[in-house]
Amino acid sequence: MISIFHLLASFLPLLLVFLLFLIMPDLTRKDLIFGVRWPKDDCRRPEINTLIRSYRVWSAALGLILFVGIAALSFSLAWTWLVPFGAIVQILLFLGIYQIFHRKAVALKQTLKPMKQRKQVMLSPMEENSIKPGLSLVWFLIPLLACIFSAWLGFQDYERIPDRIAIHYNLFGHADRWVDKSPLSVLFLPLTQLFLLGIMLFVVGIFRKAKRYVDVENPRLSLHYDARFRAHWIQWAFISSLVLQLPFLLSQLQMVRRLTLAAPLFVIMMIIPTLFILVYAVVLAYHTGQGGTRLEPDTDEQEGDLGKTRRDDDRFWKAGLVYINSDDPSIWVEKRFGVGYTVNLGNPRSYAILGGIILLSLGFILLAQWMTQ
């Protein structure tokens, strides 16, 4: 059983990345073809359909070859580090394929000039940024209480904790890193729980504050589905913050000797929450699409003038991935390929936020190293 689970735990994330990039054109907004804006009713051109089919073929072929190669090397050489390294290589491969098709989409747009006969519209910032919050932040007190309970458990049963504490386990459930017992080492797990909760709250903040995309052809519907999209992902962040508490609480219970699990069962309980969050995210991305576009009903009904299209802002996007617009006060904007948001590097505040993220992450890593010496 453990070998089957080892296979699942090791390669399911790679498989999810492979499938996610394969279906990425289906998740992206219909008027964005490989990071290039087109009038929505022009996106069914045969040239564009051919481009998307070609992307799928190349992504499927090269991605499958890489996946099989990583799997074969990992099992034949028993190099467990090949899996995370392979995930990085896999992402870089798909980004490289995307860049090839982004350039093709740019060339196709320059040839066909689809925006020339369109009335380009720029919506007001007030209309784009107004949004009702989704799930209340009060709900996040539940995972916060789990963090507090974990810390209380460690100090309440401090005398029951052995002199040497296991702080890391391998994929077979056996401890492979130990530290001496101390108040700081007992706090290591609760502080990790708190750090992960902070990440989820940061994600919620992005979904609540990011710039809103409004479809000029269907402004009312697009605002409605955008609100549903954000509500779904805020709910995902809440459920994920709860699920992430489970492995740390189990580890804390094991440490204070209030729970004893066999090694195979323990590793399953450690890894399943992470796999659940990843699968949940991919399924949700396919269900909602970018900005809730896949939530829309199958109808050709339009509210506005089909001769209108959103302003052509391709010049602000570098390689279809990086957004730089000093005239846009927004910090977070929708990504052009995939689901979620990216930062506006034309806003000076974005550098402060990115710097803060890097400093906090490095600070936590250094703190964890110091606490577990």
Main sheet characteristics: 2 strands, antiparallel
Structural class: mainly alpha
Calculate the terminal CA-CA distance, rounded to whole Å: 34 Å
Task: Give the beta-strand count.
Answer: 10
User: What is the H-and-E element order?
Assistant: HHEEHHEHHEEHHHHHEEEEEH
Shape: globular
Estimated helix fraction: 55-70%
What average pLDDT do the residues reach? 82
Strand content: 5-15%
Unreliable segments (pLDDT under 50, ≥5 consecutive)?
Answer: 125-130, 298-306
Q: Give me the number of helical elements.
A: 12
Backbone CA Rg: 24 Å
Strands of the widest sheet, in order across it, are: 1-2
Keywords:
single chain; 373 residues; mainly alpha; two-stranded antiparallel ribbon; 10 strands
Can you describe this structure?
The protein is mainly alpha-helical. It has twelve helices and ten strands. It starts with a helix and ends with a helix. The strands form five sheets. A two-stranded antiparallel sheet has the order 1-2. The chain is globular, with a radius of gyration of 24 Å. Helix 1 (2-22) runs antiparallel to helix 3 (46-77).
Protein topology:
Blueprint: H1 2-22, H2 24-27, E1 32-33, E2 36-37, H3 46-77, H4 82-112, E3 119-121, H5 125-129, H6 141-156, E4 164-169, E5 175-180, H7 183-186, H8 188-209, H9 219-243, H10 245-255, H11 263-288, E6 308-310, E7 317-318, E8 322-323, E9 332-334, E10 341-343, H12 348-371
Parallel strand pairs: 3-6
Antiparallel strand pairs: 1-2, 4-5, 7-8, 9-10
Helix pairs in contact: 1-3, 1-4, 1-11, 3-4, 6-8, 6-10, 8-9, 8-10, 9-11, 10-11
